[in-house]
Amino acid sequence: xxxxxxEDLFLLRDGLVRMLxxxxxxxxxxxxxxxxLTRALAELEPDVAVVDVRLPPSHTDEGLQCALAARRAxxxxxxLVLSQHVExxxxxxxxxxxxGGIGYLLKDRVFDADQFIDAVRRVAAGGTAxxxxxxxxxxxxxxxxxxxxGLTPRERxxxxxxxxxxxxxxxxxxxxxxxxxxxxxxSNIFAxxxxxxxxxxxxxxxxxxxxxxxxx
Amino acid sequence: xxxxxxxxGPLVSAGRGLMLSVVSLAGSITLFVLSVLSLVFIVLGxxxxxxxxxxxxxxxxANQRRLLAARWSGVRIPVPYRPFPADARTGVTGRVERCxxxxxxxxxxxxxxxxxxxxxxxxxxxxxxxxxxxYAVEGFVLAAGLWRVFTDDRYWxxxxxxxxxxxxxxxxxxxxxxxxxxxxxxxxxxxGHFLLAKALLAPGTDQEMALRIERLTESRHDAVDTSxxxxxxxxxxxxxxxxxRLVAVGMDLGTVEALIEKDPAKAKALIGKARQSxxxxxxxxxxxxxxxxxxxxAERGLGDAVKALALRLPVEIEVQVELxxxxxAPVESAAYFAVSxxxxxxxxxxxxxRAWIDVSHTGGMLRIAVTxxxxxxxxxxxxxxxxxxxxxxxTFDGVLAVSSPAGGPTMVTMEIPCELS
Lengths: 216, 421
Hints:
The complex is a heterodimer.
Chain A (H helix, E strand, L loop, with lengths): L1 E5 L3 H13 L3 E6 L2 H11 L3 E5 L9 H12 L5 E5 L4 H8 L6 E5 L6 H12 L3 E3 L1 H11 L10 H12 L3 H8 L3 H14 L7 H15 L2
Parallel strand pairs in A: 1-2, 1-3, 3-4, 4-5, 5-6
Helix pairs in contact in A: 2-3, 4-10, 7-9, 7-10, 8-9
Chain B lengths: L9 H35 L2 H27 L17 H14 L1 H39 L10 E3 L2 E3 L2 H37 L3 H36 L1 H18 L4 H29 L2 H6 L1 H11 L3 E7 L6 H22 L3 E9 L2 E8 L12 H10 L4 E5 L6 E8 L4
Parallel strand pairs in B: 3-4
Antiparallel strand pairs in B: 1-2, 4-5, 5-7, 6-7
Helix pairs in contact in B: 1-2, 1-4, 1-5, 2-3, 2-5, 4-5, 6-7, 6-8, 7-8, 10-11, 11-12
GO molecular function (chain B): ATP binding; phosphorelay sensor kinase activity; protein dimerization activity
EC number (chain B): 2.7.13.3
Protein name (chain B): histidine kinase
C-alpha cells in the first residue's frame, strides 16, 4: 500500500516512516510542508495520505486545508489526519463531502501500533476512523440532552463505535453480541437518522456526519 | 448640539437667561469672594477647615451649571474632579488632607477662573438673551405714548433720541429689529453662555492625560498581575503533571532495562505502564496548551475557535460570526478567553439551556455579545467572574456591558478597539 506522509517534526516523521515500513507500507514521499504535500498528492497518486493538521510555512491548519483541496480534486482520496488536539469542527469539515475514506486521530494513537495501522488500512479502504475523543466530546454534551433521533441506549453505543469506524464484526466482538444483532442495530440507526439507501460504507459515513451534526 | 435636545422657544430662553444671569452674578461673586477669603485664612490656620467646605460649594455650583448646560442646550461638560481616596482619614488630619488634595487638583483652580469669567462674560451672555426682548418691548412702549414724558428732556433709546412721536416710532422700529434678533438668536446666546462655561470647566488636555495615565497604570497592573498568576499556574501544572509523569516513565524504563533479561514478563508489563504514563502526560499537556493558547485559535482565528469552544460545552449554543479578517493575535486571545469566561458563567451560574454568541467588527470595534436564556441577575462586582473579565478587556481599552434583569435573559457585550488584517 502506497502512502504519502506529511509531518513537520522530524522525530515524528521518522518514527511514522519506520512504523509504516515495518507494516509493509510503501512510503512514496515523506514531506514537511503544505506546498510539498499538495504537490505530492497531485503527482504521486497514493492509496492513502497521512497528514498532520498543522504544517509550515503558515503553521495554521495548512495540512487540513491541503487534504481537503486534494479531496476536492480527487473525490474520495483517503486521508488520515493526525493532530495534537481533536475538534468536532474539523471532524465535520472532513466528513462533509460524504465520500468516506477519512480518518481523524490524535497523535497519541500512534502509541498503539496495531490499532493505528488498522485505522490507516480502514481509511485506505474507504472507511472512517474517528478518534474516540471526538465521540466522547459529543457524548458528554448529549448526556443532558434528549437522545438524538430517538436512539436507544444500545443503539447509541453501537453508533459510537460505528462513528469510530469499526466494522460490524469488531463492534460485535467488543459488545459481546452476534454480528447479526449489530447489523440489526445499524440498520435501525440508519432508518432513524433518515439516511438514504446506498452501499453500507457510505451510509456509515453519513451516519457519523448526521451524528456530529446532531451535536449542534 | 445633542439631537435629543429640542431647540427651546425664545420666551423660554429669555426666562432661562434671566435666571442664569442672577445665578451668575450673585452666586459666582459670592462664591469667588468666599473662596479668596478662605484661601487667605489658610495662612491664619482656620482656612484649612473652611476651604474644603467652600470649594465643595463651588463644585456644586459648577455641577449645577453642567447639569443645566446638558439639559437646556445639549452642551456636555465632563466632570474633571479627582476622586478622594477610599481610605481617607477622619478628624483633623483628614480635614487637612482633604484640603490639600482639593488645592492640588487643577480642576479647583479652573473652577475659580470660571467664577471670574462667569460673573462677567457669562453674566452678560445670559442677560443679553433676556434683555434683547425686554429692551424691544421698551421701544414699543415709547412709541405707544411713553415718548410724551420725554418731550422736554430727550431720552436715549440706544442711539435714538426720543422726544416726539416720530422718534418714538423710530425707537419702535429699532425695538422690532432687536426683538427679531432676540427671537432668532437668544437660544444661541444661551448656548454661547454654556460653551463659555465648557471652555473653562471641561478638563484640559493635561487633565485628560492625567486621567488616562491613571487608567493605563491601573490596567497595566492588572495585566501584569494576571499574567504572573497565569505563569504560576502553568508552572504548577507542569511540575505536578507532565514533568512528574515523565519522571515516572524514565524510572519505569530504567527498571525495564534491568529486568528485561531476568524477568521479560514483568518488563513487558512495565513498558505498558510507561506507555500509559506518557499518554497521560500528553493529555495533561494538551489541556494545558488549550488554557494557554487554544490550538484552533492559532490555526483558524477567533471565529472558528469560538465555534469549537461552543461545541465542547453542554449547552446548546448558536454562534454567528461576521469578520472580514483576523484581529491582532493578543486581541484574539483576550477576546477568546473573555468569551470562554462568559460561557463558563452561563454554564455554571445562569441555569441556561441555550446561548447565543454574536461576533462582529464595525467602526474599528470588535464586538462580541453573549446572550443566554438563564435566570439573569448577573452583576459586575468584586469577586465575580465578570469583573475579572472587565479587567482582562481593560488592558486592550475594551469595555464590558452587562444587561441582566432578574428572571433573565442575560446579555454580556464586549467591545475591543482593533483593526482587522
